[in-house]
Specification:
The radius of gyration is 21 Å and the shape is globular. A hairpin with a 2-residue loop joins β11 and β12. The chain has about 270 residues and is an all-beta fold. It has a 19-stranded mixed β-barrel. About 5% of the residues lie in helices and about 65% in strands.
Length: about 270
Amino acid sequence: MAFFGDISSPVGDVIGDDYTTKVTTKMKSKAGPCTVTSETERVSKDGVSLLSKLSLKYAGPNGFSLDKFQMKPKGEAVVETSLTDKDRGLKYTFKGDISKKGDLGVEYTKGMLGLTATMDLFEQKKFSTSALVSQNAFAVGGSANLKTTGGVTLDTFSVGASYSTGPFFAAITTTKLSSATLAVKYEVSDTLKVVTSSEHSASSPLGGVTVGCVYDAKSNGVIKAKCTSSGEVSAVLVKEIAKKVNISPSVTVSNGDITNAKYGIGVVMG
């Protein structure tokens, strides 16, 4: 991990990615120096309709990259660009849309240090920064969000640390030192990993708990499953059914009510 925002990603990737209750297709293709992605979602509210998004990605010269230019169903446009200076370990970013919302950011990596800073470019009402120091099995860091209206005030802050050795990984992060999230991953074997994520605070010593696992079934795909202390159980299969064609059927059941289970599937081509 390079930045504080990724400190719990080994667990977050297992319990957060791929699960869906939507029906989507995504097609990727090359158009000269650009990568074009078309994504369509089936929406059943008030009848059945299809919502489409078109995205463009371009890696330009001298470290410049158009990471995303996306047109959404209602005509909104999203733009993400970056400029990388590898010699200095710097990356400048911009993320915005046509409604005059945009964040200007900078990332810096050097050895065991990773720093980020982001500013609300148009309204100039907020500023955020983070730092992470990684050394061998340990990483420690923090982040802060500042409000810049009527003076500079601290809105929220977080601190955290992680430890990784062999098959074991653990990370703890806090918000304003009033609540903490503990994330743990253990690799049982080359094909099976189990994870837990739990919330803790003075008012609720053991709050929400999520337990998950990921199993690599080789040619049969990758199976992920998770359950939460609120009674929600989810599972997804990620499988390549042909060259560059992946499907991810998913199901979510709440409180054992199978009759009202929510289903979804994603298809990615290219």
